[in-house]
Amino acid sequence: MTQDIDTRAQRIAGHIQTQLAAAADPTKAGPMQAYMKTDMPFYGVQAAARRQIVKAVAADNPLDPKRDHGVVRRSVELLWAMPHREEKYAAITLARSWRGAFIAPHMMDLYEKLIREGAWWDFVDELAIHLVGPCLLRDREHIAPLIEKWLTDDDMWIRRSALLAHNRHKKDTDGQTLLRHCLTLAHEPHFFIRKAIGWALREYSYTAPQTVADFVRQHHDALSKLSRKEATRRLIKAGLWP
């Protein structure tokens, strides 16, 4: 069984790697690398083309949600271990492609590993919002305690993920917890934490604009200028700010 999982996963990851390499554009690779401020090499394959490659490979390899979780995990791990940044992007896209049962609490250890190793916004934000977030929404009983631990983790990217995991929950947002999390991290000087606080609040303002407006007013001095600016973007348009 393990051999079958590995064989299937290698086929999936290998096909994606081969197609990314075939689509490489050296004229774009350098600028993409410079924009991301990384030493990691790029093929020069932009987002739309990457998504199309992953979508096609996923469609050609339909998986059974009752028995193929191991194939998903191993495929993601293999892509993540490859040297180019687009292969790591593909790992995250692939994890998102097989929706439903494949984005599940038992995958949280993998998502956490990728966040810690990715340690930059282009990886972390996708993982936090589109993989960790759905797990939190579907199983708060088991995932919420983990997110509480993440909130005080030594790794800044894990703390950022604890905030962004609330995004996209819309009417099902646990507003009380979200606001508490924002206030807990409001003292931090890190740009990426302050930005995440504002982003999370802005997302929640689509569902509870008055609640967010009241929160920002009440905690004006605790929140950074950046957090307030991001949080109130929609409130200004809605006439609820200042």
Q: Keyphrases for this structure?
A:
single chain, mainly alpha, 242 residues
Account of the 3D structure:
- This protein has 242 residues and is an all-alpha fold.
- Helix content is 69%, strand content 0%.
- The protein is built from 14 helices and no strands.
- Helix 5 (85-97) packs parallel to helix 7.
Q: End-to-end distance, in Å?
A: 61 Å
Low-confidence stretches: none
Counting DSSP E segments of at least 2 residues, the number of strands comes to 0
- How many helix segments? 14
Kindly report the average pLDDT value: 96
What would you report as the Rg, rounded to the nearest angstrom? 19 Å
Helix content: 55-70%
Per the principal axes of the C-alpha atoms, what is the gross shape? globular
Order of helices and strands: HHHHHHHHHHHHHH
* Most strands sheet: none
- Strand content bin: under 5%
Please state the structural category.
mainly alpha
In short:
With 242 residues, the protein is mainly alpha-helical.
Question: Helix and strand layout, with pairings?
Answer:
Layout: H1 2-22, H2 26-36, H3 47-60, H4 69-80, H5 85-97, H6 108-118, H7 121-138, H8 140-150, H9 156-164, H10 175-184, H11 191-205, H12 209-218, H13 225-231, H14 233-237
Helix pairs in contact: 1-3, 1-4, 1-5, 3-5, 4-5, 5-7, 6-7, 7-8, 7-9, 9-11, 10-11, 11-12, 11-13
